[in-house]
Amino acid sequence: MQYPTVVVNGVPVRVDNEGRYNLNDLHAAAVANGEATESQRPGVFLKSKQVKRFVKALSDATKSASVNVIKGGLQQGTWALELVVIRYAAWLKPEFEIRVYNTFRDAILNGVSSMTRLNRLDLLIANESKEVSNCAKTMNKWGVGGRKQLLNGARERIIDQMDPDMVAIMQGDAS
């Protein structure tokens, strides 16, 4: 599944293949706009007993890890599902929570809008492909060995049955 990438305060927040967003990116976005301090890192947020209970409940409900902490490597950082991301934003500053919530909502709505446009386009392509296919079938029936040959054969048989003088007059008119 493709998860929407979001940009908060001009900072892109990365998303992994499991739909978890990078809280470190979100923290950087908050710090860049003066809505968080360096001491409000994701690790501090996750130490709260209340947050630990929430993360466990969410993990149980989704049957997957709602938070994944990676130490070292290209994907290092704290990765969390959207509900944890919004909760972290609220922990930083209520106004920041509102901005993050609206950003996620807009990303989803834009994704739904794009999906609707894509579905409509796919339907149009399918319908036109069917029409073209029907036209191709008709053309195929007309072509070599098809209806055209059948009609021309019937024409030739009629001409063969006609009076030769009448055929000569018809051919003279055609020239």
Briefly note the CATH topology name of the largest domain. Mlu1-box Binding Protein, DNA-binding Domain
The proportion of strand residues reads: 5-15%
Name of the top-level CATH class of the largest domain: Alpha Beta
**Could you tell me the mean pLDDT?**
84
How does the overall form come out from the CA principal axes? rod-shaped
Radius of gyration: 34 Å
**Topology order in helix (H) and strand (E) letters:** EEEHHHEEHHHH
Structure classification? mainly alpha
C-alpha termini separation: 69 Å
Number of structural units classed as domains: 2
Low-confidence stretches: none
**What's the architecture of the largest domain, going by CATH?**
Roll
- How much helicity do the residues have? 55-70%
How many DSSP E strands?
5
In spatial order, strands of the major sheet run: 3-5-4
Count up the helices.
7
Largest sheet, strands/sense/barrel: 3 strands, antiparallel
Characterise the protein shown here:
This protein has 175 residues and is mainly α. The protein has two domains: 6-101, Roll (Mlu1-box Binding Protein, DNA-binding Domain); 119-174. 66% of the residues lie in helices and 9% in strands. The chain is built from seven helices and five strands, in the order βββαααββαααα. The chain has helices spanning 23-32, 42-46, 49-62, 82-92, 94-142, 147-161, 164-174, and strands at residues 6-8, 11-13, 21-22, 67-70, 77-80. The strands form two sheets. The protein has a three-stranded antiparallel beta sheet. Strands 1-2 form a two-stranded antiparallel ribbon. A hairpin with a 2-residue loop joins strand 1 and strand 2. The termini are far apart. The model has no long low-confidence stretch (mean pLDDT 84).
